[in-house]
């Protein structure tokens, strides 16, 4: 492996060295040192390959220790900047919310709190934790790890390989089929709910809510229709937001068609669980949404060895935290149907343990015996 003083002459290098992106040459440089300088300026993309350093096919950026080290140092630089931005955001946006939370808790302690006020308080706490606290903690931990590695060759290991970066990008991206599928499902969620909230939910709830007696009397459609109704704008907003995040990832991992079937299947499973364990009528897409979370959580556990660390942490720790928060809300807020949440989650865990990945996702996953290649 090359030492920290620079690259040793390599008779196999053919000049110029070319950076290839999507089959096209985007940069040409005259030496490995120039390529390292390019890597330190954020001009290289996760999907780039290098031609000219080794006979045969182009190689991954990560296969060259000097470039991997430069990329890791840039990663540390951006983590430092992100940490500052999150800290400033926590100070300017988090402080007013903390004051509001403190005053609400004092009021709750002294005079009690109505259910609607309690929902608002919990919603604000969840938003703060998910959008400020968790990203800040993750950023600090990643930066500390890079600083501990320092400038040693071990720093190379902190930079994910090309396929690993592609999988992380693929998880949050999406082609036109994924995009239009997401738009379609979100319109199906928003349409009936917004109509119901605009004209009054009573008639729609009477016709389509999960009502145990009506289902036992033969109105089986009530196991499906509650997914598309919501009690208020906060209920609708939280479910649509979570669906947008979780549904996109499931669609990219397994395909948009299967994502829709998983969402509906887990929603129905949640309705069945509610039919068994919850005598009150209920509406909402939470069973389907928690089911998608269960699919991702099961995927992270099942494919642990084939996933890059950043994706593995997201699918286990990140999604697991989302699940815990949603179940906790169900135990603290009286009018939440936690039986539906648990039923949808259980169905998602089972389906996520059995489903095969889409062909596109399979191209990014690590084979069980995959080994990293570096140049010496």
Topology:
Blueprint: E1 17-21, E2 24-29, H1 32-39, E3 49-51, E4 59-60, H2 65-111, H3 115-149, H4 162-172, H5 176-199, H6 202-208, H7 212-216, H8 233-254, H9 256-277, H10 286-302, H11 309-332, H12 338-354, H13 359-362
Antiparallel strand pairs: 1-2, 1-3, 3-4
Helix pairs in contact: 1-2, 2-3, 5-8, 8-9, 8-10, 9-10, 9-12, 10-11, 10-12, 11-12
CATH top level of the largest domain? Mainly Alpha
Please state roughly what percent of the residues sit in beta strands, choosing from under 5%, 5-15%, 15-25%, 25-35%, 35-45% or over 45%: under 5%
Q: Strand count, sense and closure of the main sheet?
A: 4 strands, antiparallel
The CA-CA distance between the termini, in Å, is 4 Å
Tell me about this structure.
The protein has 376 residues and is mainly α. It folds into three domains: 47 residues; 94 residues; 198 residues, Rhomboid-like (Rhomboid-like fold, Up-down Bundle), CATH 1.20.1540.10. The chain has 13 helices and four strands. A four-stranded antiparallel sheet has the order 2-1-3-4. α2 packs antiparallel against α3, α9 packs across α12 and α11 runs antiparallel to α12.
């Amino acid at each position: 492996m090359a030492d920290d003083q620079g690259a040793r002459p390599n008779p196999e290098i053919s000049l110029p060295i070319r950076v290839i992106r999507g089959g096209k040459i985007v940069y040409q440089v005259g030496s490995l040192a120039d390529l390292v300088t390019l890597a330190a300026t954020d001009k290289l993309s996760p999907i780039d390959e290098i031609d000219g350093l080794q006979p045969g096919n182009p190689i991954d950026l990560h296969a060259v220790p000097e470039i991997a080290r430069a990329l890791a140092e840039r990663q540390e630089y951006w983590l430092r900047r992100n940490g500052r931005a999150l800290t400033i955001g926590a100070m300017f946006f988090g402080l007013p919310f903390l004051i509001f939370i403190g005053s609400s808790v004092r009021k709750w302690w002294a005079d009690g709190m109505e259910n609607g006020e309690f929902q608002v308080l919990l919603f604000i706490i969840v938003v703060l934790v998910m959008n400020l606290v968790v990203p800040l903690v993750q950023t600090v931990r990643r930066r500390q790890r890079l600083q501990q590695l320092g400038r040693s060759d071990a720093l190379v290991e902190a930079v994910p390989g090309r396929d690993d970066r592609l999988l992380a990008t693929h998880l949050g991206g999406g082609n036109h089929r994924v995009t239009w599928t997401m738009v379609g499902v979100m319109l199906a969620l928003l349409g009936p709910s917004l109509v119901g909230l605009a004209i009054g939910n009573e008639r729609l709830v009477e016709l389509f809510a999960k009502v145990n007696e009506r289902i036992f009397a033969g109105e089986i459609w009530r196991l499906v229709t509650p997914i598309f109704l919501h009690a208020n704008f906060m209920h609708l907003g939280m479910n649509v937001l979570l669906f947008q995040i979780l549904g996109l990832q499931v669609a990219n991992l397994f395909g948009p068609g299967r994502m829709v079937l998983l969402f509906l299947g887990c929603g129905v499973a949640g309705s069945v669980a509610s039919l068994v364990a919850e005598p009150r009528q209920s509406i909402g897409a939470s069973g389907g949404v928690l089911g998608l979370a269960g699919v991702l959580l099961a995927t992270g556990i099942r494919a642990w060895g084939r996933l890059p660390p950043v994706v593995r942490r997201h699918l286990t720790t990140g999604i697991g935290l989302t699940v815990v928060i949603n179940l906790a809300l169900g135990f603290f807020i009286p009018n939440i149907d936690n039986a539906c949440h648990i039923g949808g989650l259980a169905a998602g865990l089972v389906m996520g343990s059995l489903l095969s990945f889409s062909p596109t996702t399979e191209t990014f996953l690590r084979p069980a015996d995959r080994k990293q290649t570096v140049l010496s």
